[in-house]
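QA checklist item 7 of 12: single-chain prediction sanity check.
[x] sequence parsed
[x] length recorded as 350
[x] structure emitted
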Amino acid sequence: MSAETLTWLNTQTLLGMTSERGRAWHYRAQEQGEQSNHYPGAIPVGDVAERLFFWDAIKVPVLAQFPADIETMTGLDAEGRPMMAQQMPGMVAVARSDTRQVFKVFSDGYEPHQYREWLLGAVSNILGDTLVVTSAGLLRHGGQAWVEVSVPETLHDGRTGFGYRPNLLAATSLDGSLATTYGRTVTATVCDNTMAIALGQARGQQVKIRHSRYSGLRIEQARQALSLVEETADEFTDTLRHLSSTRVTDRQWFAFLDAWHPMPEEAGRARTIATRVREELVEMYRHDVRASTWQGTAFGVVQAVNTWAHHKQPVKGASRAERNQEGAISGRFDKLDASVVGTLEKVLTS
């Protein structure tokens, strides 16, 4: 990872409740700038607006450039040759108002959702008085953004000893990668992982709004779709207790590995990769406190795979923080947990 990427993570993402969750893995004191991005408690809404969302998304014309003679030229190319620019009808580029960073070219029906309005404004209206901002940030040079709100204190299930936070996650993009999405998530505080809310559920409740000129910020619709954070807590507790009471023997654990990540019969690169992944999962399941605490249960299996995917799985083309946050926004980790549960159920009933 480059120093520039570390600088971005330390200045363009904000992490709250660090007195409970600890420092982010990317924390570097020398990269923090004038103000730390770590908050012992909640993140003030004003800080999100001033530090991250102080600029606007703007729509600018798209020009096509052609060779020209002296009489029709509008400028010169890099080689000093005369060129003529012509506006492309029906096309716009979306860019940052401060840096002029262009995110993507769209048809002119695309409507950028301003982060201050669609994330901060929406969250403020949905919140009530019982939730606080616990993380926020920009990714892809500002092309993606999120705001997460949670209950003020970590919840602990007395039966399993597991700590977690129910969240509402608001996210959107200016580069075409995301619709504006409001969804329910759960964060496991022992490892800061995103987990599925309900057993076998591939995605928590959410509402998505497309970036079009006809889209409107339907707060009531979002509020109804998201329901209550307390409901999220109840659903996750039921899931947690069911999985932690489901016994998994060593034989069943290795049968799960065979089903989840089969070992290729022929020697080669694929077998080498499979061997490494299986060894890492076994190490996670048996010796890493983030999963080994629940070894011998279905929850230990889910936690081992989920934690491996967050912290060990190879990452290409992005930082791990970016990949993990996009996974939370898109529901990829919910789908992962649901798939693990489905695979394990087949092993346990065979």
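[x] summary fact logged: The longest strand covers residues 82-96.
[ ] second reviewer sign-off
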